[in-house]
Amino acid sequence: MSALQVVALVVCGVVTVVAVALFARVVTHFLSVFRLGQPDASRTQDKGARTVTLLREFLGHTRMSRLPVVAVAHWFTMISFGVLFFTLVNAFGQLVSPSWTLPLIGHFPPYEWVTEFFAWTGLIGIVALMAIRQKNHPRSAAGEGGRRSRFYGSTFWQAYYVELTILGVTLCIVTLRGLEYALEKASSGGDATALHFPLTSWLGGLFDGSSTGSLENAIVVVAAVKILISFAWMITISLQPTMGVAWHRFLAFFNIFLKRHADGRTSLGALQPMLVKGEPVDFENIEELDEDAPLGVGKVEDFTWKGLLDFTTCTECGRCQSQCPAWNTDKPLSPKLLVMALRDHAHAKAPWLLAAESDREGLGESVNALAAASLVGETGYAADSPLAAYNPHGPDAVIDLDVLWSCTTCGACVEQCPVDIEHVDAIVDMRRYQTLIESAFPAELGGLFKNLENKGNPWGMAARARLDWAKDLPFPVKILGQDVESADDVDYLFWVGCAGAYEDRAKKTTRAVAELLDQAGVTFAILGDGETCTGDSARRAGNEFLFQMLAQQNVETLNEAGATKIVVTCAHCFNTIKNEYPQLGGKYEVVHHTQLLNRLVREKKLVPVARPSDAPGKSTAKNVASTAETVTYHDPCYLGRHNDVYAPPRELIGALPGVELKEMERTKEKSFCCGAGGARMWMEEKLGTRINTNRTEEALGTGAERIAIGCPFCRVMISDGLTAKQSEGIGEQVEVVDVAQMLLAAVKRGDGGQPVEPEVSEPTPDPEPAPVG
Fold first, then answer.
1. Closest CA to 588 of 677, 487, 478
2. pLDDT tens digits, residue range 467-499?
3. Residues 377, 288, 454, CA angle at the centre, nearest 5°?
4. Cβ–Cβ contacts within 10 Å for residue 548, how many?
5. 693-706, pLDDT tens digit by residue?
6. What is the pTM of this model?
7. Are strands 524-526 and 397-400 parallel, antiparallel or unpaired?
8. 3-state secondary structure of 223
9. Which strand ranges, in their side-by-side order, compose the sheet holding 478-479?
C-alpha cells in the first residue's frame, strides 16, 4: 500500500471508531430519556397493522404529500440514504485497493444501475430541498421578523450541516463512479463498458488521459473524504441528541410505528384519557390515587415515553407552524417551537432526573436551576419576544401560560406533521395540570366551569329552556320518556346540543334540520331537558373531572333510553359523542346532520328545487332567502380534520340547483380554524389579531354571497367576524348560514313554500361567559 493509503486508513479508522462509540452512547442516552416518561401500553398493540402503516407512510410518503415537490425531493433523498449505505462499505475497501468492489453484487448491473440512479436523484433531491429552504427562509418571508416562514425559529446551522453532508456524500459517490470507470478503462486498454456505469460514464470521460496511478490516488482521496464526511456527521449528531433535523431519519420509524392508531389514522378525534402510571383516571375513584399522583403534566417527566419520543423526533420542518391559526394571527403559540422547547428541556433535565439524589448537587447550579423551573408559568420575558417563551433555560418556566392557552386544538399541527407528532394531546395534558392542580386558567373559564357544573350548559340557562327552539313548528317534536318510551321507536335520537337549544343563530339550524327530517319521513326524538352539555369545552380546557361528570351523566341517559343512532348538528358534540364517549362506555352510531341530509337527498327523500329565474338573489327582508348563486363553505375543524368529513357538506351544496361553490384557498385538510375550539369560544383574544376575522376575510375574498357552515361554534365566530367587517362597509350583502338552512329553502320551493329563514325566539340575555369573536 502507498503512504497515502496508510494515512487514509488510519485517519478513517480512528474517526469511524470514535463515531460508532459516540453513536452507541447517544442511543443509550435516548433509551434512558424515554424511560423517564410515564407508561403507555396502548402503543404496541396490533403490530401487523402498525408495520403496514409504517411501510405505507415510509415508502408512500403519504404524510409528506401536502407539499408535493418537497415530498418527491425528500423521497429520493431519504431512499438514497439507505440504498447508498453499501457505497460506504465499498469506500473502505477502496482505501486498501482502489479497484475493489463488493463481493457478488459489486459488478452486478442492476445493483450498479440502482446505485447510480439514487446517487443522482439523491443529489438532485437535496439541491432542491436546499433551494426550497432558501426560498422560504425567514429573511424572504412577509410578516414581522419572518414569522410567516415555516422555518422561522428552526435551528439553521443544523439544517445547513445536514444538507451539506448529504450533498457532499452524493457528490463523492458520483465522482467515485466516474473515477472507477476511468480506472477500468485505463487498466483494460479502453475496454470499459457503459453497461456498468450507465449514468457516470460521461463523467469518467473527463478523466481520459490520466495515468492509472493518479486515478487510484484520486479514488483513495475521494473515498476517504466520503468516509470522513459520513462519520463526522455521525459524531456531530451523537454530540447533539436534540438535533431533530438529523435524528428524525432514525426516530421517525419508531414514532410512526408507535402512533396512536395502528391503522394509520391521524392522531386526532378523541383526546387521550388522563393517565396516571399508565392507567386512565376514573373520576369516581379519584380518592384511591396517591397524593403525589400527577394529574395531567406538570413536569416534563410526567409526559408518557411516547410524548418524549414525539418531541425528540421533531425535524423542525415547520409545517405545523405554517398551519397554526394562533401563530398566523401573531399569538405566541407555535407548535414547532413548543415541541422544540419540550425536547430541549427534557434532554437538558435528563442528567438530573437520572442522577442519584445524593449526586444532584454536583451537577452544577445551571442544571439544578433547570430542574427547579416550572414547566408552565410566567416566563418573565418581554411580551414582545415570542421566542423567549420557548427558552428551556428561562428563569421561571419553560412554556408561558399565554402559549398554552392560545391553542384552539384545531389539529392542523397534527394533521400536517410528517412524523406523526401528537401536539394537541401534549397541550391538553399540560392544561389539565394547570386547571386541576394549579388553578391557573384564564379567568373567563371560571364562569364556564361554574355554568357547566350547575346548569349543564355554557350559558348558564335553565334546563326547561332547552325546548324553546321547537315552539311553533308545524309538527310535534317527540321527547324520549314522554312521547316515546325508547329510542328504538324512532329512526334517530336528535342530539340538539347546548348551542342548538340556547344560541339564537344555532336555533335556526336546529329547526331547519327538524323540518327536513320530518319532511323526509325520518322519525326522531329528543332528550329535552334530559340533555346536558357533552363536556367538550371542559375537557379541552383541562377540566377532565368536569368532563367526566357531564359525560357519564349523558352516557347513562343515552344508554337508559336505548339510543343507538344519533344525529347531531354541532361538530364538537359529534366528535365527543362519537369518539370520546366510548371511553366511558357509550358506543353509538353518530352522524353529522350534513351526512344524514346528504344521504336523504341522494335517496330522493328530499328534493331541492331551483330558484325561480325572476327571484331576487338577495333580500333585505327580515326573513332573508337562505340560498344564493354563490357560496363558500367553511370546514369545521372537529368535523373535517378530526373526523375526515369533507365530502357530504360539499355534495349537499352541489345538489342545490343554481348554486356555485367557491372554495377558499385554505380548505379541507388545510382549512383555517374559526377560533372557537379548545374552549377558546369562551375566552377573549387578548393577543395578536382575531382568528375569526382572518378566516372571515378569506371567505369574503372568494366573492361568495353566502358563507356556509356546519357547526354552531363556527357560525358564532364567522358571524361575529362578518359583523366586524360589515361595520367597515365590507361584505354588507353577505350572510352566514348553515348548510341545512340552504337545503330547507330549496326543498320548500318544491312544496310551494317560501324560502325563508325559520322564525326563532327573541334573543335571550347573554350571561357570563359570553361567546366572543
1. 487
2. 999 998 999 999 998 999 899 999 999 999 999
3. 65
4. 24
5. 999 999 999 999 99
6. 0.90
7. unpaired
8. helix
9. 478-479, 524-526, 492-495, 565-568, 589-592
